[in-house]
């Protein structure tokens, strides 16, 4: 059943992607020609809005654009990656000229260098000027263009922040240069590379040796992922590699999942409000976009705070919730619950009572708060009765001693 649903969704995303694609032409002085582009904007894109979008540049868009655009639609639907602008470069018969390289280094030369400069000096400035783009750019290439995109790593400031190199046909000494360059880059870079069991033997051998070299790189600025797909060929690995690469590149953008809660949140040293705040600051820093903390994620982290009996974190999460959702009772509830767990019953009761004038939260309503107030009222009565009983027992003991 689940497989059938995924197939239907894939078809829907393919059809919607096809319907939303626009075709543009850009004149190039560097190439002395006009190049055709395929461009897909995010659903609901508003040129007057201040919302910024990452840009995904697809080389060999003649066959690679639809798989990339479809995957972007699929993952943004589930909020697994930010909405993005997908730009495909139609290369067609120009592919050989675009990828022309120097035999020794494997880096672009002559017509290849002109194409390289067309991307950096003409295409991306054109896209940035016309659309609401963020600073985060992804390059996607396959085969010889999977090798070509590595040339942008060698700029003083790399043009792309993420590289999806699918079964790259490394030429010359480029595979050695890539690992050496990744070792010294001072900016945050995501680098993904993939091959497959039935890949072209020579290409596969070069990729495996390159992977071994990159694995030796110790640079905290580099986030590296590698896949070796079983049973796939040089061409059939493409769709799986696109899905895996986007899942990895945008992993931190994903909603909080059980693995992160167990491995990172639960073991976090410090109050858990700081974990959430730092997480979203990193998203903004990496992708140049703002993503708001949701009520659902606050609730997940609050549960972790309870599990580790960290009521200081619960109190601070309540204060954070009050800033983010001042109209709802979520923040006041966490602060009250924290006081209750620390034995401050009177304070907790007053806080619960103050929450009744606020709007319901996702999973907390006025009925639940009213039940908490009733529970604490009874607890306070019991506490008073216990105190009176203790006083009476002390008086009786004193009288017995006198007699």
Number of discrete domains: 2
Overall outline: elongated
Number of DSSP helices? 15
- Mean pLDDT, to the nearest integer, reads 90
Number of E strands: 8
Mind telling me the C-alpha Rg? 29 Å
Cross-sheet strand order for the largest sheet: 1-2-4-3-5-6-7-8
Percent of sequence in beta strands: 15-25%
What is the CATH first-level class name of the largest domain?
Alpha Beta
The CATH topology of the largest domain comes to Rossmann fold
- What low-confidence regions span 5 or more consecutive residues with pLDDT below 50? 1-15, 384-399
Do you know the CATH architecture of the largest domain? 3-Layer(aba) Sandwich
Task: Describe this protein with a few key phrases.
Rossmann fold; disordered N terminus; Serine Threonine Protein Phosphatase 5, Tetratricopeptide repeat; eight-stranded mixed β-sheet; signal; Mycobacterial_A85_antigen; 403 residues; 15 helices; alpha/beta; 53% helix; Esterase; Esterase-like
What would you say this structure looks like, in words?
Residues 1-19 form the signal peptide. Keywords: Signal. This is Esterase. Pfam families: Esterase. With 403 residues, the chain is α/β, with parallel strands linked by helices. It has two domains: 2-253, 3-Layer(aba) Sandwich (Rossmann fold); 258-391, Alpha Horseshoe (Serine Threonine Protein Phosphatase 5, Tetratricopeptide repeat). It has 15 helices and eight strands. The protein has helices at residues 2-20, 61-77, 95-98, 111-130, 144-148, 174-184, 201-215, 237-249, 258-265, 272-287, 295-307, 311-324, 330-341, 345-355, 366-402, and strands at residues 21-28, 33-40, 53-58, 85-89, 133-142, 162-166, 189-198, 222-233. Strands 1-2-4-3-5-6-7-8 form an eight-stranded mixed beta sheet, sandwiched between helices. Strand 6, helix 6 and strand 7 (189-198) form a beta-alpha-beta unit. Helix 1 (2-20) packs across helix 2 (61-77), helix 2 (61-77) crosses helix 8 and helix 6 packs parallel to helix 7 (201-215). The radius of gyration is 29 Å and the shape is elongated. The model is unreliable at 1-15 and 384-399 (pLDDT under 50).
């Amino acid at each position: 059943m689940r497989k059938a649903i995924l197939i239907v969704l894939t078809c829907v995303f393919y059809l919607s992607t096809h319907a939303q694609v626009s075709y543009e032409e850009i004149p190039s002085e560097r190439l002395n020609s006009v190049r055709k582009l395929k461009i897909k904007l995010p659903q609901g894109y508003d040129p007057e809005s201040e919302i910024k979008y990452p840009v995904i540049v697809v080389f060999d868009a003649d066959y690679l654009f639809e798989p990339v655009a479809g995957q972007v639609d699929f993952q943004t639907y589930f909020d697994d990656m930010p909405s993005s602008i997908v730009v495909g470069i139609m290369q067609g018969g120009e592919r050989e000229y675009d990828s022309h390289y120097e035999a020794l280094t494997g880096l672009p030369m002559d017509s290849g260098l002109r194409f390289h400069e067309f991307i950096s000096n003409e295409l991306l400035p054109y896209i940035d000027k016309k659309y609401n783009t963020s600073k985060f750019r992804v390059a996607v290439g396959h085969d010889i263009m999977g090798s070509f995109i590595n040339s942008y790593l060698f700029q003083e400031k790399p043009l792309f922040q993420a590289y999806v190199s699918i079964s790259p046909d490394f030429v010359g000494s480029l595979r050695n240069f890539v690992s050496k360059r990744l070792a010294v880059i001072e900016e945050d870079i995501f680098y993904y590379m993939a091959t497959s069991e039935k890949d072209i033997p020579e290409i596969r051998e070069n990729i495996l040796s390159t992977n071994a070299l990159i694995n030796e790189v110790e640079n905290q600025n580099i986030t590296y992922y590698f896949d070796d797909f079983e049973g796939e060929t040089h061409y059939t690995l493409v769709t799986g590699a696109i899905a895996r690469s986007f899942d990895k590149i945008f992993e931190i953008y994903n909603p909080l999942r059980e693995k992160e809660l167990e491995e990172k949140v639960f073991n976090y040293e410090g109050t858990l409000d700081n974990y959430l705040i730092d997480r979203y600051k990193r998203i903004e820093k990496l992708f140049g976009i703002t993503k708001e903390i949701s009520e659902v994620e606050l609730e997940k982290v609050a549960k972790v705070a309870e599990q580790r009996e960290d009521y200081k974190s619960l109190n601070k999460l309540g204060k954070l919730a009050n800033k983010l959702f001042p109209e709802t009772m979520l923040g006041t509830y966490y602060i009250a619950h924290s006081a209750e767990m620390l034995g401050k019953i009177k304070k907790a009761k007053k806080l619960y009572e103050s929450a009744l004038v606020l709007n319901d939260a996702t999973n907390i309503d006025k009925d639940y708060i009213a039940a908490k107030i009733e529970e604490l009222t009874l607890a306070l009565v019991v506490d008073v009765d216990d105190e009176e009983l203790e006083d009476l027992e002390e008086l009786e003991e004193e009288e017995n001693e006198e007699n």
